[in-house]
Amino acid sequence: MTDKISPAESLPIVILISGYGSNLQAIIDASRSGELPVEIRGVISNRPNAYGLQRAKEAGIPVKIIDHATYLDRPSFDRALQKAIDSFQPSLVILAGFMRILGPDLINRYQGRMMNIHPSLLPAYPGLNTHQRVLDAGEKEHGASVHFVTNELDSGPVIIQARIKITPDDNVRSLSTKVQAVEHHIYPLAIKWFAERRLELTDNKILMDKKPLTAPVEYRVSTLSD
Ligand code: GRF
């Protein structure tokens, strides 16, 4: 990256996780190396035992646990989550392996300011168990997508996708490894574009550099240093 944004211009973000947190780690690493102009103000997990919480603590990032199991219903969980997010005053909310469906109030509140990463080439294979479903369907390629979050599950406008080839010896484990490897590139990249004010969501459409993005950006290895 040539023109790095100074720390004073860092974008405040909050990252929501439920588990291992390898995408969280990729974002922490990219931010530490100076490639990604963000200030990770907090990490929120709905699971008290999420390994990602360790990663956040090791990086000195404040954490909050909003355990869905302790709330009576979805609206009360969503309200607590919103309070936790807002306490960090983020400009962007990052879902990184966050495994709860969010209600419309929460999604509307952060419309255009909330991203998710999904392990498939959206709009193909929204939902769970994508690697198994892709194998069952005999697909030749697979991948990952970063998208803005809207009220339809895994269906918001896609910012960037990375493709991987499926080989005959692939299984769920190998696909998961391959897909996660590319996720760790495309998520920091999408966040970087947002931090640089190159991305905007208007009327459910993405503008990139003020022009409509007619198809998701296709990730190439060289894109990282663009
Ligand atoms: C990723 O594969 C992501 O696409 C999906 O959940 C997984 C999270 O992995 N939404 P991690 O917790 O970031 O390691």
Structure commentary:
The chain has 226 residues and is an alpha/beta fold. It has two domains: 6-110, Rossmann fold (3-Layer(aba) Sandwich); 120-145 and 159-186 and 199-226, Rossmann fold, CATH 3.40.50. The protein has six helices and eleven strands. It has helices at residues 22-32, 51-58, 74-87, 104-109, 130-136, 172-195, and strands at 11-17, 38-45, 63-65, 92-95, 114-118, 141-148, 158-165, 199-202, 205-208, 211-212, 217-218. Strands 3-2-1-4-5-6-7-11 form an eight-stranded mixed β-sheet, sandwiched between helices. Helix 1 (22-32) runs parallel beside helix 6. The longest helix is centred in the last third of the chain and has 24 residues, at 172-195. Bound molecules: 5-O-phosphono-beta-D-ribofuranosylamine. 5-O-phosphono-beta-D-ribofuranosylamine (GRF) binds at residues 17, 19-24, 52, 96-97, 117-119, 144, 180, 183.
